[in-house]
Predict the structure.
Amino acid sequence: MVSSCIPQARRFLSVLLVCVALSSCFSGRGGDYGFLERAEELSREGEYADAIEAYRKHMAFRLTVKRRPAWENPYFYLILIGDIQLGQGLIDDAEKSYVLAEENKVDEYLIADRYRGLARWCEEQGKLTEGIEILTRYRSRDPLLFETMMDRLAKELTLREDAARASP
C-alpha cells in the first residue's frame, strides 16, 4: 500500500514545486517577467510559435540573472515548450525539448511524467509501437510506471494484430 503511494507523492511534490516556482515569478516583479506573461498570453490565444519564442526569451533572460534563487532552474520552461509542441502534434520536437530539460537538471519526476505523456499521445493516435519505443528509451526514469504502461500498450498491440490476422 505504501509503495504504491510513493510515485503519487513524488508527482505531488514535483507539481507543488512547480506551482511555488511559478507563483514566485509573479510576486511583485514587473518587467523581469514580461516575456513569461507574454508567453502565457500567446499560448492561451493559440499563437504557439510566438509563445515558444517568448518562453525561450524568458528562459534566456533568467539564465543571465546572477542573483536568482538557488531552487530556480530556468530550463524548466523547456517543459512548457515541449507541452506546447506535443499539443501541436510535434512529438519529435516535444521529445527534444524534454530531453534538453532533463540534460539541464529539471526535476526528474516532471521529466518522467512528460515522457509518459509522449507515449500516451502515441497511444491516442493509435501509434502503439512508437509509444512502446518511447517508454523503452526512458524506462530507467521510472521503471514501475513505464513498464506497466508498456505492458498495457503491448497487450493492446497484440490484440490489434490478432484481430487483423483473424479478419479476411
